[in-house]
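R.M. (postdoc): so does anyone remember the format we settled on? I'll just put the structure tokens first.
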């Protein structure tokens, strides 16, 4: 495997920022929700290795431009769609509903 998720050991990506130990665990509320949904699926549906493999399917340009928990969400969406638990249309419809609700 030689994808963007295998960058360990490469140089030129800058320093990893040190997080203050008193900072919140998640930067945003949605990150905690993604973590919870992913963890729940590890137990019932998808082993961690399968989730890692799903993350490797994310297009390199999308992977490199996504945050840590965005990658978790993208991998979860891939697994849910591939295992016929939801459709891509259902995900898009829900995203659109959330955007609509935020405007009101």
């Amino acid at each position: 495997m030689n994808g963007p998720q295998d960058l360990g050991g490469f140089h030129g990506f800058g320093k990893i920022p040190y997080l203050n130990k008193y900072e919140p665990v998640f930067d945003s509320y949605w990150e905690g929700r993604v973590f919870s949904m992913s963890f729940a699926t590890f137990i019932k549906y998808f082993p961690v290795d399968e989730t890692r493999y799903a993350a490797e399917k994310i297009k390199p340009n999308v992977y490199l431009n996504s945050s840590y928990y965005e990658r978790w969400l993208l991998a979860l969406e891939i697994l849910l769609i591939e295992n016929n638990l939801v459709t891509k249309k259902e995900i898009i419809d829900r995203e659109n509903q959330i955007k609509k609700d935020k405007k009101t």
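R.M.: ...and that's the designed sequence above, right after the tokens. Also worth knowing: The helical segments are 29-44, 48-56, 60-64, 68-82, 88-103. The mean pLDDT is 86.
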